[in-house]
């Protein structure tokens, strides 16, 4: 049955980004509705590994690195908040990440990274191969060219985090509607005043597109060229009652995350294949070869499932955050590519600041919609 709804802020997209914004708005008592075309968290968010890799993922200093480090620092407090509001545990694991060098070029890049990250005030320790294998066990890891240990890069379990954000936002008054797909914009005098869905129109004072890899498609109706496109990632989930190590091990083209529930997440490919999100044997065979080459003990672990999702890639690798010039009432929070879980905490915070007319706690110029959207 078709029915009409009104809300102050309408968030389109119930992945980790849309839900993190809803949580922040609900804390600020802003009336918020999230609509999601499938189930909450069912797309890129469900597929993600959950690394909070502010250091391991960044090759150079710059706005993305700053944003990542700022966001990572919000997680311990966020964890306490979610525990207090809804009793949900995001399964934050803090042993840190080893970024393992697999050849001499890799080693030199990591040693350079250690220097700039330390001078930027972060912890980053170098371990030679023999020390590394003493820590991890040489039956666990094969020979390496040394590794950079990043003790402050953590991980969460994505769906536990997402469900905690949803339950907490609901407890604070936010509303969520699944199986509700936005099919177009409601406009009046050039302003966005809501969206059309198959279940009827929804009017809103502000509309936020947090639609991940689909954001570019949705902009087309307004003749907006939003430079966000899908980048497929495939991973494997394995079972283990006792994961081979408590640390996350990250190397070229592959990473291994022991999860608190005993599972081991092995990720991830990076492929440009449009909106095809199906896992395939060739990519997964290559990934498992790389993982077993680094950590031979994985070979005997049974499969849980293959995983695939579409990361929201952006043209310059930075997320797109803020109001859309020339489209009053429309905002975008998307393009978080490989780091949407890491960046969800700061994205929720700054989008709440934008939407409530406050000074943002981070300079959003490098992430502005204006830099990238052609109107
Ligand atoms: C294999 C893999 C590993 C990853 N590992 C990590 C990691 O370790 N750490 C990290 O930080 N990040 C990681 N990421 C990236 C991270 O998962 C993404 O950046 C993040 O999930 C993006 O969140 P999102 O909410 O923008 O997108 P999504 O989770 O895709 O959510 C967007 C939502 O919008 C909905 N939607 C789209 N169109 C409409 C419409 N018309 N109407 C209503 N709803 C709509 C979709 O159904 C979807 O649920 C990984 C990603 C992959 C694929």
Automatic annotation (TrEMBL):
Its GO biological process annotations read:
thiamine biosynthetic process; thiamine diphosphate biosynthetic process
Q: Name all FAD dependent oxidoreductase domain ranges.
A: 8-352
Q: Which reaction does it catalyse?
A: glycine + O2 + H2O = glyoxylate + H2O2 + NH4(+)
Query: Looking at the keywords, is DNA damage present?
Result: no
**Under which EC number(s) is this enzyme classified?**
1.4.3.19
Q: Which PANTHER family match?
A: GLYCINE OXIDASE, SARCOSINE DEHYDROGENASE-RELATED
A Pfam family cross-referenced in the UniProt record is DAO
Q: What is this protein called?
A: glycine oxidase
Which organism encodes this protein? Tumebacillus permanentifrigoris
Q: Does the keyword Ribonucleoprotein apply?
A: no
Keywords (alphabetical) are: Oxidoreductase, Thiamine biosynthesis
Which pathway is it part of? Cofactor biosynthesis; thiamine diphosphate biosynthesis
Top-level taxon of origin: Bacteria
Recall the GO molecular function terms of this protein's record: flavin adenine dinucleotide binding; glycine oxidase activity
Gene Ontology CC: cytoplasm
């Amino acid at each position: 049955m078709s029915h009409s709804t009104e809300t102050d802020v309408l968030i389109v997209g119930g992945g980790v980004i849309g839900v993190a914004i809803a949580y922040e708005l609900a804390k600020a008592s802003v009336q918020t509705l999230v609509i999601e075309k499938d189930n909450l968290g069912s797309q890129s968010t469900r597929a993600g590994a959950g690394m909070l890799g502010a250091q391991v993922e960044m090759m150079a200093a710059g706005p993305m690195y700053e944003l990542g480090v700022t966001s990572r620092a919000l997680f311990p407090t966020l964890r306490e908040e979610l525990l207090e509001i809804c009793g949900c545990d995001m399964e934050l694991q803090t042993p840190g990440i080893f970024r393992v060098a697999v050849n001499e070029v890799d080693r030199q890049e990591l040693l350079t990274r250690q220097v700039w990250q330390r001078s930027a005030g972060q912890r980053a320790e170098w371990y030679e191969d023999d020390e590394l294998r003493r820590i991890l066990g040489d039956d666990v890891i094969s020979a390496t060219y040394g590794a950079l240990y990043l003790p402050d890069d953590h991980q969460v379990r994505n769906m536990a985090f997402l469900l905690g954000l949803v339950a907490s936002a609901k407890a604070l008054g936010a509303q969520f509607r699944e199986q509700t797909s936005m099919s177009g914009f409601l406009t009046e005098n050039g302003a966005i005043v809501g969206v059309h869905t198959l279940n009827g129109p929804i009017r809103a004072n502000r509309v936020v597109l947090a639609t991940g890899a689909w954001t570019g498609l949705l902009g087309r109706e307004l003749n907006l060229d939003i430079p966000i496109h899908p980048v497929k990632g495939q991973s494997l989930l394995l079972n283990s009652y006792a994961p081979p190590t408590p640390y996350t091990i990250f190397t070229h083209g592959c990473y291994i995350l022991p999860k608190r529930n005993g599972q081991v997440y092995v990720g991830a490919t990076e492929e440009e294949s449009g909106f095809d999100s199906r896992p395939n044997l060739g990519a997964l065979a290559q990934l498992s070869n790389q993982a077993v080459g680094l950590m031979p003990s994985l070979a005997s672990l049974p499969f849980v499932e293959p995983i695939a999702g579409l990361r929201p890639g952006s043209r310059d690798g930075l997320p797109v955050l803020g109001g859309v010039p020339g489209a009053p009432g429309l905002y975008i929070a998307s393009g978080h590519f490989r780091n949407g879980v890491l960046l969800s905490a700061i994205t929720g915070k700054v989008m709440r600041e934008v939407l409530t007319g406050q000074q943002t706690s981070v300079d959003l110029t490098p992430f502005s919609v204006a830099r990238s959207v052609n109107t």
